[in-house]
Each structure stands twice: as C-alpha cells, then as structure tokens.
Amino acid sequence: MIRNMRASDAPAAGSPVRAAIVRGAGLFALWVVLMQSPKPLDLTVGTLAAIGATYASLRLLPPDAGRVRFVALLALLPRFLWQSLKAGIDVARRAFAPSVPLATGFVDYRTGFPPGIARNHFATITSLMPGSLPSGDGPDSIEYHCLDIGQPVAEQLAEEERRLAPALLPGRHRG
Fold first, then answer.
1. pLDDT reported for residue 54
2. DSSP characters for 90-140?
3. What pTM was computed for the model?
C-alpha cells in the first residue's frame, strides 16, 4: 500500500521520534565530516555509532527536558560579551585595589525556571554577571556567591531572566 505523506504526518516538535531523527542525523553528519570517507564499512560503523550516541543522548537529555532557541540566544550575544567584559574588569579592580571593599555573601534568587536545561543555561549565563557566581541549587531558587551583597544582585538577575526567557524554554519537570 502506497500513501502520500502529509505535513500533518510528520513527528511533532518536541516528540521523541523527531528528537531521535534530528539528533541521529546530526550525529551521523558529524561522523561523516570527521571520517571524510564514503567507504561502506566506515558508513556502517558511523551508522552504528550514531544510533548508539542517539540512544545515549535521548536517555541523558530527554526531549521534554526543555530547549534553547539559539537564534534568540544569538541576539543576546552583544549583551553577553559586554557583561563578560564588565565582570572581568570588576573582579580585576577588586583584586588589585585593596581600597575597594568586599562584602561577600550569598543571595538566594527565586527563579521562574524549573530544574532542567533552561535553568542550567540561565545559571551558566548569569555566572558572568559582575561579582556573582552560582554556587548552589534549590527546588525553586539558585544560590549565588557575591563579592558585594550590597549590590542589587536579585534585581540584576530578574532582568537577566526577563531577557533570557524567550530563548530558554523550560521542559516538563521530572519529579
């Protein structure tokens, strides 16, 4: 029996089948680029390696764990680079100028991101904020070590979360 496939028959975005196809194709393409050999044995080994890597990928990072919109994240690159530069200058200034007071401590920031990919990316990106570094994780908050707790760290984090929310899509929480 032959039938025409319609667009509605394609796997839905975020489905395990679509994730397996996309990841498997990407991993196989990586194999082909690295091997640069069209020999049948190499392609067979590459196919088996891609299948194994895809299985491991789906087990370690299920498709419903969330995702990142890379184009939206790329739009934030200039701000990210500026924040990184400011953070480096701030830390260097504090290290080389003993007159700059340090008021180290911890700030718990209640984030709207549930545990998962989006929250991990949020913590990674905000680690480059001047004078703060994620140091712990709770059910609905991230603990940040700060060089100066007198600074408006929570407000800065809220602003970063607002800007990053369109790029970091949380998935379903797996208790």
1. 94
2. HHHHHHH-TTS--B-EEEEEE-SSPTTHHHHHHHHHHTTSTTEEEEEE-SS
3. 0.64
